[in-house]
Amino acid sequence: MKIVPLDREHLEYHKAKVNALTPASRGLWGRMDVVHMVCHLSTSVALSVDDRGVIDRSIPIVRTLGRWLVFDTFTTWPKGRFKSSTQMIPEPEGSFEEEQRRLLDAFDRFVAEAQQNPGRKTVSPVLGPIPMQYWTHAHGVHLNHHYRQFGLV
After folding, report:
1. Model pTM?
2. I need a labelling partner for 71 at 20 to 30 A (CA). Which of 77, 104, 139, 147 fits?
3. Distance, CA of 54 to CA of 63 (rounded, Å)
4. Residue 42 and residue 98: Cα distance in Å, rounded?
């Protein structure tokens, strides 16, 4: 399956996927309901722009081999195999519609920052410092996983 990066060229693709979700959308696997999944994605995208407070818990093997395996080689992740840290799955602050709007706004902020500063590095708690240019791909892989989970691809 082709990975669609989160960048200016593909922004409308990602917005259309998120806009296809409804409060009644159900995952095909996993424990997250739709509002928690949208909140999880919003948190992930937002931290890649503003990493204040993110603790780098990465280790060299994950930053190199793990990143290569998970984000560059085997980009179609197994269903229910990867568990996010609690930091990455906060409780939603609002309704589904409010969380959906937060995610769409996070897409806009990320795409603008990645276009203006592609070499700027921000910290992932698992992968360590990552340049914006690579985040566009990493987000594409992550988004694709959740689009599959909710039957959007």
Report:
1. 0.89
2. 104
3. 16
4. 11
